[in-house]
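The material for today's practical consists of a large collection of protein records. An example says more than a description, so a record of this kind follows:
***
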Amino acid sequence: MQKTVLACICGLIFALVVSAQSRHNVSDIDSDGTIISVTASRTDSKPDPIKLNNLFLYEDGIEQKIKNFAFDPSPARIVLLVDNSQTLPATIDKLKAAAMDFAYEIFDGDQLFVIAYDEKPEIIQEWTDDAKKMETSLGTFRKKGNPYLFDALHAAVTEVLNPLMPGTHKTAIVIIGDGLDRGSTFSYDKTLAELQNKNITVYSLQIPDRTGGAYRRDQPKANEVVEKLAEGTGGRVFSFDEAETAAKSICDELRKNRYMLSYMPIDTSSYDARRLFLIADNGISVRTKNAQPPNVK
């Protein structure tokens, strides 16, 4: 009898420990709760500010209590990730022009970092807001080899943006390419999870798919890669042919419509991906990443 009672007590303690770990041991939670970046703007032309009580957040279908929602006035850090591969259907001159459009549109305090990639990512220009310096550095663009997009994204996160964190929240990567990957060691799924974990927003100037929509065995089709990365991180996709308009829209959005939202997750597990769904009152448009990745090292 004593052994039975003892076993029940041990089992209860174990269950409570596991439950506490699954619900609270989440890597992106601090004293302020889980923090996510949100793009929000009014579509009804009202002058009223967007407030916490205008928003509704769900995680795995369970409504979460939003703790704080505030405009982020900090400068942006934008990585331009340019496909440098041999068969990309875009000229070097057009790639240069698209990158330069951002140099003309960034706001005071914003900075750009340019990486070109084929089989290896190559730093073209380190952090700068100097358009003349950018123009000179873009002279090293070339076209060769195959596109290792996911490896380049991983490098941009770990080597360029991660060192700025946690002090810098407003981070973005702009992919200038068609989304094709041929040979990366880093997978699509791991790439998306890494971007979501770091709250990095992906935008794209999408070039037409050079494969014509060919099926990819272990990843989405090229054009779908671009779309899913943007959707999964709260970004947007623009046409490469409208690079000037895209650069203005992206820079304006980061400066004028970027907010930070915090909440303390309830009834969630740190060991599974958690789907996020953010909606707002009528007349307000909102975007954020669509998932919190699992807490797996």
Summary: Residues 96 and 138 are 6 Å apart (CA to CA). The longest strand covers residues 33-42.
